[in-house]
Write a structure and sequence with these properties.
226 residues, three-stranded mixed β-sheet, 8% strand, Membrane protein
Length: 226
Amino acid sequence: MMQAQDVDLPFYEQEVFNSYEELSNFWYAETKQGWQQVINTFCPDYQAELKTLLVKFYNFISNIWSKDIVKEFVRILRINNNGGPVVGSTYREGFKQVIALERNILLCSHKINGFNSWRNGWWSSGEIFNVIFHELGHTIDINFSRQVNVIEEIKVFLANKIENGQDLTPEQILNLFHLSSYSFNNLGDFVAEGFVYWFLASDALKIKAWELWHEFLTLYLPKLIK
């Protein structure tokens, strides 16, 4: 339920969960154990911030859908040590949603490596949190896509927002909003990168493109699924 002190917050920031402890006690045991392994492996300098961001993320999805979805949104977390180019993946095992993360992207050294990769056009930011929330962005896309075609809706949304865009096709307009070469891999990565940009952007990066992602994720899409 909404807390009385939160009535002035946007609906998607209402505090369904007030702390990481409260959130983790709500998860299934396997989910709690999985996130705890991720946090224990994560760069110690950022563990507290990761917990804060997870509470923010799960409050967001609770307010978009329901508190009960928190238990099913991600059931299993895995840490791999393959050393390959795939740093994260999201997939299903039966009815359970799984996120697998490469161990090296959880380490303090990834703060530097991530920034260098971003400069080369592979990630939308140098944040150490990027891969984790990119994969959570996939889960956002998956859940919205059960009710609407997210990519077609973003084409409609952007076409209505772009001034003097009459000579551009919806696909050309969409291409203007790719945030990195990584998001060109597939349309699922496009949405995941958009979510990461919206969720993690510093105030300095909250330019017009961020405002459009903000409106799309917090106002436009939620209205379509109510």
